[in-house]
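TICKET: design request
STATUS: open
ATTACHED STRUCTURE:
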Protein backbone atom coordinates (compact mmCIF):
# COMPACT_ATOMS: atom_id res chain seq x y z
CA UNK A 1 0.00 0.00 0.00
CA UNK A 2 0.96 3.61 -0.62
CA UNK A 3 -0.87 6.84 0.01
CA UNK A 4 -0.95 10.48 1.04
CA UNK A 5 -1.36 12.28 4.36
CA UNK A 6 -2.57 15.88 4.36
CA UNK A 7 -5.45 18.32 4.84
CA UNK A 8 -7.32 18.96 2.62
CA UNK A 9 -6.73 16.23 0.03
CA UNK A 10 -10.15 15.68 -1.59
CA UNK A 11 -9.46 17.56 -4.84
CA UNK A 12 -5.97 16.15 -5.44
CA UNK A 13 -5.98 13.67 -8.37
CA UNK A 14 -2.85 11.85 -7.19
CA UNK A 15 -4.64 8.67 -6.02
CA UNK A 16 -6.38 8.09 -9.35
CA UNK A 17 -3.14 8.81 -11.19
CA UNK A 18 -1.03 6.40 -9.14
CA UNK A 19 -3.63 3.62 -9.23
CA UNK A 20 -3.82 3.88 -13.04
CA UNK A 21 -0.02 3.69 -13.35
CA UNK A 22 0.18 0.74 -10.94
CA UNK A 23 -2.41 -1.05 -13.10
CA UNK A 24 -0.51 -0.22 -16.30
CA UNK A 25 2.64 -1.87 -14.96
CA UNK A 26 0.76 -4.85 -13.52
CA UNK A 27 1.61 -4.00 -9.90
CA UNK A 28 -0.81 -5.19 -7.18
CA UNK A 29 -0.45 -1.83 -5.39
CA UNK A 30 -3.00 0.75 -4.25
CA UNK A 31 -2.83 4.43 -3.29
CA UNK A 32 -4.94 5.67 -0.38
CA UNK A 33 -5.57 9.39 0.13
CA UNK A 34 -6.03 10.28 3.82
CA UNK A 35 -7.37 13.56 5.19
CA UNK A 36 -5.60 14.10 8.54
CA UNK A 37 -7.23 16.85 10.59
CA UNK A 38 -4.56 17.67 13.20
CA UNK A 39 -0.87 17.28 14.01
CA UNK A 40 -1.86 14.93 16.84
CA UNK A 41 -3.70 12.73 14.34
CA UNK A 42 -0.68 12.94 12.01
CA UNK A 43 1.48 11.38 14.71
CA UNK A 44 -1.00 8.51 15.13
CA UNK A 45 -1.19 7.97 11.36
CA UNK A 46 2.58 7.98 10.87
CA UNK A 47 3.10 5.46 13.68
CA UNK A 48 0.57 3.15 12.01
CA UNK A 49 2.20 3.13 8.55
CA UNK A 50 4.73 0.36 9.09
CA UNK A 51 2.36 -1.99 11.00
CA UNK A 52 -0.27 -1.53 8.27
CA UNK A 53 2.21 -2.58 5.60
CA UNK A 54 2.70 0.70 3.75
CA UNK A 55 5.70 0.97 1.40
CA UNK A 56 5.51 4.75 1.20
CA UNK A 57 3.31 7.83 1.53
CA UNK A 58 3.24 11.35 0.18
CA UNK A 59 3.10 14.21 2.67
CA UNK A 60 1.20 17.33 1.63
CA UNK A 61 -0.07 20.59 3.13
CA UNK A 62 0.13 21.40 6.00
CA UNK A 63 2.39 18.64 7.36
CA UNK A 64 5.65 18.78 5.37
CA UNK A 65 7.51 20.34 8.29
CA UNK A 66 5.46 18.84 11.13
CA UNK A 67 6.19 15.27 9.96
CA UNK A 68 9.95 15.58 10.39
CA UNK A 69 10.20 14.88 14.16
CA UNK A 70 8.13 11.71 13.61
CA UNK A 71 10.67 10.11 11.25
CA UNK A 72 13.58 7.75 11.84
CA UNK A 73 15.81 9.36 9.21
CA UNK A 74 15.80 12.03 6.50
CA UNK A 75 17.87 12.51 3.34
CA UNK A 76 20.21 15.40 2.53
CA UNK A 77 17.52 17.35 0.67
CA UNK A 78 15.21 17.29 3.69
CA UNK A 79 18.05 18.44 5.95
CA UNK A 80 18.83 21.37 3.63
CA UNK A 81 15.22 22.37 2.98
CA UNK A 82 13.60 21.65 6.34
CA UNK A 83 10.56 19.80 4.98
CA UNK A 84 9.61 16.35 3.62
CA UNK A 85 7.06 15.64 0.89
CA UNK A 86 7.20 11.84 0.83
CA UNK A 87 8.32 8.89 2.92
CA UNK A 88 9.68 5.46 2.23
CA UNK A 89 9.21 2.67 4.75
CA UNK A 90 12.27 0.43 4.74
CA UNK A 91 12.57 -2.46 7.22
CA UNK A 92 10.08 -0.70 9.48
CA UNK A 93 12.01 2.61 9.41
CA UNK A 94 10.36 5.81 8.21
CA UNK A 95 12.67 7.82 5.95
CA UNK A 96 11.82 11.32 4.73
CA UNK A 97 12.59 12.69 1.27
CA UNK A 98 11.83 15.92 -0.60
CA UNK A 99 11.46 16.21 -4.37
CA UNK A 100 8.89 19.06 -4.49
CA UNK A 101 11.51 21.35 -5.96
CA UNK A 102 12.90 18.75 -8.34
CA UNK A 103 9.45 18.34 -9.88
CA UNK A 104 8.98 22.07 -10.38
CA UNK A 105 12.47 22.51 -11.83
CA UNK A 106 11.82 19.81 -14.45
CA UNK A 107 8.40 21.28 -15.28
CA UNK A 108 9.73 24.83 -15.70
CA UNK A 109 12.71 23.65 -17.75
CA UNK A 110 10.24 22.45 -20.42
CA UNK A 111 9.16 26.08 -20.92
CA UNK A 112 12.21 28.22 -20.07
CA UNK A 113 15.77 27.88 -18.74
CA UNK A 114 16.15 28.60 -15.03
CA UNK A 115 19.65 30.04 -15.20
CA UNK A 116 19.59 33.75 -14.36
CA UNK A 117 15.87 33.94 -13.52
CA UNK A 118 14.76 36.59 -11.04
CA UNK A 119 11.99 34.82 -9.15
CA UNK A 120 9.05 36.08 -7.10
CA UNK A 121 7.37 33.33 -5.08
CA UNK A 122 3.99 33.85 -3.43
CA UNK A 123 3.89 31.78 -0.24
CA UNK A 124 6.70 29.90 1.47
CA UNK A 125 5.21 26.86 3.19
CA UNK A 126 6.57 23.33 3.04
CA UNK A 127 6.32 23.07 -0.75
CA UNK A 128 7.34 26.67 -1.34
CA UNK A 129 10.52 26.42 0.70
CA UNK A 130 11.58 23.26 -1.18
CA UNK A 131 10.87 24.89 -4.52
CA UNK A 132 12.74 28.05 -3.56
CA UNK A 133 15.87 26.11 -2.64
CA UNK A 134 15.73 23.93 -5.77
CA UNK A 135 15.20 26.96 -8.04
CA UNK A 136 18.31 28.51 -6.51
CA UNK A 137 20.26 25.27 -6.95
CA UNK A 138 19.10 25.19 -10.60
CA UNK A 139 20.61 28.60 -11.34
CA UNK A 140 18.09 31.28 -10.41
CA UNK A 141 19.88 34.59 -9.82
CA UNK A 142 17.62 36.09 -7.13
CA UNK A 143 14.49 35.17 -5.17
CA UNK A 144 11.87 37.39 -3.54
CA UNK A 145 9.57 35.53 -1.12
CA UNK A 146 6.20 37.21 -0.62
CA UNK A 147 4.38 36.09 2.53
CA UNK A 148 2.01 37.50 5.09
CA UNK A 149 4.11 36.13 7.96
CA UNK A 150 7.41 37.99 8.21
CA UNK A 151 9.07 35.34 10.36
CA UNK A 152 8.28 32.59 7.85
CA UNK A 153 9.38 34.61 4.83
CA UNK A 154 12.66 35.72 6.36
CA UNK A 155 13.44 32.21 7.62
CA UNK A 156 12.91 30.66 4.19
CA UNK A 157 14.92 33.43 2.52
CA UNK A 158 17.78 32.68 4.93
CA UNK A 159 17.46 28.95 4.18
CA UNK A 160 17.73 29.60 0.44
CA UNK A 161 20.81 31.77 0.79
CA UNK A 162 22.46 29.38 3.25
CA UNK A 163 21.82 26.32 1.07
CA UNK A 164 22.70 27.89 -2.29
CA UNK A 165 24.52 31.18 -1.90
CA UNK A 166 21.82 32.84 -4.04
CA UNK A 167 20.46 36.13 -2.64
CA UNK A 168 16.91 35.87 -1.34
CA UNK A 169 14.77 38.48 0.41
CA UNK A 170 11.34 38.74 2.03
CA UNK A 171 8.60 41.08 0.79
CA UNK A 172 5.42 41.59 2.83
CA UNK A 173 2.15 40.47 1.22
CA UNK A 174 -0.19 43.44 1.56
CA UNK A 175 -3.17 43.72 -0.78
CA UNK A 176 -2.34 43.21 -4.44
CA UNK A 177 1.23 42.02 -4.94
CA UNK A 178 3.30 44.35 -7.12
CA UNK A 179 6.30 42.63 -8.69
CA UNK A 180 9.77 44.19 -8.38
CA UNK A 181 11.16 45.53 -11.64
CA UNK A 182 13.09 42.89 -13.56
CA UNK A 183 11.07 39.90 -12.33
CA UNK A 184 11.28 37.10 -14.91
CA UNK A 185 9.45 34.25 -13.12
CA UNK A 186 6.38 34.46 -10.88
CA UNK A 187 5.20 31.44 -8.90
CA UNK A 188 2.08 30.85 -6.82
CA UNK A 189 3.05 28.44 -4.03
CA UNK A 190 -0.18 28.94 -2.06
CA UNK A 191 -3.49 27.08 -2.17
CA UNK A 192 -5.31 30.09 -3.64
CA UNK A 193 -7.13 29.00 -6.78
CA UNK A 194 -7.65 25.36 -5.86
CA UNK A 195 -11.00 23.72 -6.64
CA UNK A 196 -13.70 24.11 -5.54
CA UNK A 197 -13.18 27.67 -4.21
CA UNK A 198 -11.11 28.92 -7.21
CA UNK A 199 -10.04 32.13 -5.46
CA UNK A 200 -8.07 34.65 -7.53
CA UNK A 201 -4.49 35.37 -6.48
CA UNK A 202 -4.23 39.11 -5.73
CA UNK A 203 -1.50 40.20 -8.16
CA UNK A 204 -1.14 43.63 -9.76
CA UNK A 205 -0.96 42.27 -13.29
CA UNK A 206 0.10 45.64 -14.66
CA UNK A 207 3.46 45.01 -12.95
CA UNK A 208 3.91 41.61 -14.67
CA UNK A 209 5.90 41.73 -17.91
CA UNK A 210 4.29 39.63 -20.69
CA UNK A 211 7.60 37.76 -21.04
CA UNK A 212 7.51 36.70 -17.38
CA UNK A 213 7.07 32.93 -16.89
CA UNK A 214 4.11 32.28 -14.56
CA UNK A 215 3.96 29.07 -12.53
CA UNK A 216 1.21 27.59 -10.32
CA UNK A 217 1.51 24.63 -7.95
CA UNK A 218 -2.24 23.92 -7.94
CA UNK A 219 -3.16 20.62 -9.62
CA UNK A 220 -6.95 20.93 -9.81
CA UNK A 221 -7.97 22.68 -11.98
CA UNK A 222 -5.04 22.51 -14.38
CA UNK A 223 -5.63 26.11 -15.54
CA UNK A 224 -6.34 28.10 -12.39
CA UNK A 225 -7.68 31.67 -12.31
CA UNK A 226 -4.05 32.72 -11.69
CA UNK A 227 -2.80 31.00 -14.85
CA UNK A 228 -5.79 32.20 -16.86
CA UNK A 229 -4.97 35.80 -15.89
CA UNK A 230 -1.32 35.21 -16.84
CA UNK A 231 -2.33 33.89 -20.26
CA UNK A 232 -4.50 36.96 -20.81
CA UNK A 233 -1.39 39.03 -20.05
CA UNK A 234 0.49 37.00 -22.70
CA UNK A 235 2.78 35.20 -20.26
CA UNK A 236 4.08 31.67 -20.81
CA UNK A 237 2.67 29.40 -18.08
CA UNK A 238 3.61 26.20 -16.24
CA UNK A 239 0.75 24.34 -14.53
CA UNK A 240 0.79 22.32 -11.34
CA UNK A 241 -0.25 19.12 -13.11
CA UNK A 242 3.05 19.08 -15.01
CA UNK A 243 4.89 19.46 -11.68
CA UNK A 244 2.84 16.65 -10.18
CA UNK A 245 3.74 14.34 -13.06
CA UNK A 246 7.45 15.09 -12.78
CA UNK A 247 7.68 14.54 -9.02
CA UNK A 248 5.27 11.57 -9.04
CA UNK A 249 7.44 9.73 -11.57
CA UNK A 250 10.42 10.06 -9.24
CA UNK A 251 8.41 8.88 -6.23
CA UNK A 252 6.94 5.94 -8.17
CA UNK A 253 10.42 4.75 -9.16
CA UNK A 254 11.70 5.11 -5.57
CA UNK A 255 8.80 3.08 -4.20
CA UNK A 256 8.54 0.36 -6.85
CA UNK A 257 11.95 0.13 -8.51
CA UNK A 258 10.21 0.48 -11.90
CA UNK A 259 11.41 3.25 -14.24
CA UNK A 260 8.13 4.66 -15.66
CA UNK A 261 7.45 6.21 -19.05
CA UNK A 262 6.31 9.83 -18.83
CA UNK A 263 3.48 9.26 -21.33
CA UNK A 264 1.93 6.72 -18.92
CA UNK A 265 1.79 9.29 -16.12
CA UNK A 266 0.59 12.08 -18.44
CA UNK A 267 -2.28 9.89 -19.68
CA UNK A 268 -3.17 8.75 -16.16
CA UNK A 269 -3.37 12.27 -14.72
CA UNK A 270 -5.34 13.58 -17.73
CA UNK A 271 -7.90 10.80 -17.23
CA UNK A 272 -8.00 11.50 -13.46
CA UNK A 273 -8.86 15.12 -14.23
CA UNK A 274 -11.49 14.12 -16.79
CA UNK A 275 -9.46 15.46 -19.69
CA UNK A 276 -9.51 12.22 -21.70
CA UNK A 277 -6.51 10.45 -23.18
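STATUS: resolved
RESOLUTION: sequence designed for all positions
ATTACHED SEQUENCE:
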Amino acid sequence: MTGMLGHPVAENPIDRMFDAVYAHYGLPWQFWKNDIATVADLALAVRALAPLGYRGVGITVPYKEAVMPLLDAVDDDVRAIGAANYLTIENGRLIGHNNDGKGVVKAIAKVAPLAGQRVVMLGAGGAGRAMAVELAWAGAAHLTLVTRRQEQGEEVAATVSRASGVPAIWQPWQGEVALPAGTTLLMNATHLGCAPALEPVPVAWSTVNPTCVVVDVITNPRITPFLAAARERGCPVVDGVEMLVQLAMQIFERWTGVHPEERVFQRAVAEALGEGA
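CLOSING REMARK: The longest strand covers residues 142-147. The mean pLDDT is 95.
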